[in-house]
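User: Watch each token:
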Amino acid sequence: MSKTGIIVLVVAVVVVAGGIWWWMASQNGPGNSPAAYATPTPMMQEVTPTPAPADTSLSATGSSNADLNADLSQIDGQMSGMNSDNASITQGMNDQPVQQEPPQ
């Protein structure tokens, strides 16, 4: 036999042996053993989610004009803060790269 034929034969034997080893390992894994099914696992207890706490910064119970105006002014303040944040983000997204000078 030539040297190339021997190398091909050895590689084929290694591939077949690896395939057999993989198949045997997949058939006899810990998930398929009878001992894995011998002890029943306890069922998970169902958990009921608790509702999130209500936002108490707004006067939810008041319906007078003063309460509504106070709520609207708080909302306006939050909206102006959001607009400021949005402007900062937009400016940051539109920044252009600056050419750096090498150290001297």
User: Anything to note?
Assistant: The chain is about 55% helix and 0% strand.
